[in-house]
Amino acid sequence: MSVGPALQAIFAPIGKDGFTYGLLILNMYTIPAYLMIALSILSIILLFTIFHESYAGLLCKESKSPDSAYVLPKFDKYAAGVCLFLWFLNNSLSTNMELIATPLTIALYEWNDQDAVFNNGLLQTVSCLLSVGIYFILGCTRVGKFDRRKMILFALTVFTIYHVVNMPWPFYDGPLNYIPKQGNSTFEDTSIIGGCYERYSWCANTTRVPLMLYVVTATLCFGIAFPFMSSQTGTLYSEILGPRHQGFMQGVLAFFGSISRCVSPLISAIVFERYGYFWPTAGQLILLIIGMSLLGLFRKRLVPLQLVLRSDLTPK
Asked: 104 and 3 share a domain?
């Protein structure tokens, strides 16, 4: 995750035209994609040649034996459902940031295409490096032993701060500028200079988030919040399921994340084109409020599964 955004920044100087090698078109947009394809193929090879699947600590079969001291109860479906929503929200936040960042900064700060790709890639790289440091702290210090519900709430609060700050408040500078046309041309070329497209009628009455606020919140808020959100949600979900085979339920978790990554960009892109960045930001805020509400409402149920002593189930 740290290298991905950096690749965009590294190859941005190549520009949109780049160069061709036979039928292969290489530019700042295609080269990172080709590298990801190569890494994916390498990952598949490593999966089938090196990875060995081994289960440990499962009580599924042992709990069914009459000689077992413990019985594995059913997991709390409501608690698991809250984690599924939180994972959906986590992926929605991530995808929305990746999708909106480039067109948003082109419209707000008049960055051209190359500057937008490079600068946003740089911001995401710094953010991801910060996340790596926090993952290290969570994995190697006592911080990782804190109440997972509180850490998730902390992440949701930090995400909320970002979205509140990056709303187009009326006291910010505005309105936004449209892309200047070159000479008698009617073509809006963002490869030269950024701004709002003429079809963005909302730019005429939309304000601009101060650049320093955007830079600071985009790096710090996302860099700090994602480790507390993603790692703790996945871990809590696994603990709620308990020491049983989790293949299907982990697949359900991945399914909710994938649905979010499919649906969120489509909705955000359509809403951004027609109404500006207020409603995509407000939509994420609504999801965050729902997430915090569910976390508070089901707080007592969001706990690791407790095994039951067989003697407690035996009629006396």
From this structure: no
Residues 212 and 287 in one domain: yes
Block means of pLDDT (10 residues each) for the chain, 316 residues, are 61 75 80 84 89 65 56 90 97 89 93 89 90 92 93 97 96 92 73 89 94 96 94 94 88 94 92 94 96 96 84 55
Going by the DSSP 8-state scheme, the letter that residue 289 receives in this structure is H
| 197-203 own/partner pairs: CB under 8 Å, 24+ apart | 197/107, 199/273, 200/107, 200/176, 200/273, 200/276, 202/274, 202/275, 202/276, 202/278, 203/107, 203/175, 203/176, 203/177, 203/178, 203/276
CB atoms within 10 A of CB 52: 4
In a domain, 136, yes or no: yes
Q: State pTM to two decimals.
A: 0.84
Measured CA to CA in angstroms, residue 119 lies from 12, 18, 178, 234, 281 at distances of: 9, 19, 20, 31, 21
Q: Structure tokens of 211?
A: 């650049």
Does 175 sit behind a cis peptide bond, omega within 30 degrees of 0 on the bond before it? Answer: yes
Whether residue 62 lies inside any domain: the answer is no
Q: Say yes or no: 87 and 212 in one domain.
A: yes
Q: Look at the alpha carbons of 122, 26, 265, 240 in this order and tell me if their dihedral is positive or negative.
A: negative
Residue 200 covered by a domain: yes
Query: Is the distance from CB of 121 to CB of 8 less than 8 angstroms?
Result: yes
Query: Within a 13 Å sphere around the CA of 41, how many CA atoms are in the beta-carbon half?
Result: 6
Q: Give 22-68 pLDDT, tens digit per residue.
A: 778 888 778 878 888 888 899 899 888 888 766 656 665 545 555 55
CA distance linking residue 164 with residue 291, whole number of Å: 16
- Is 129 a member of any domain? yes
Q: In the chain, how long is the greatest CA-to-CA distance?
A: 93
Tell me the C-alpha to C-alpha distance, in Å, between residue 283 and each of 82, 143, 271: 19, 31, 10
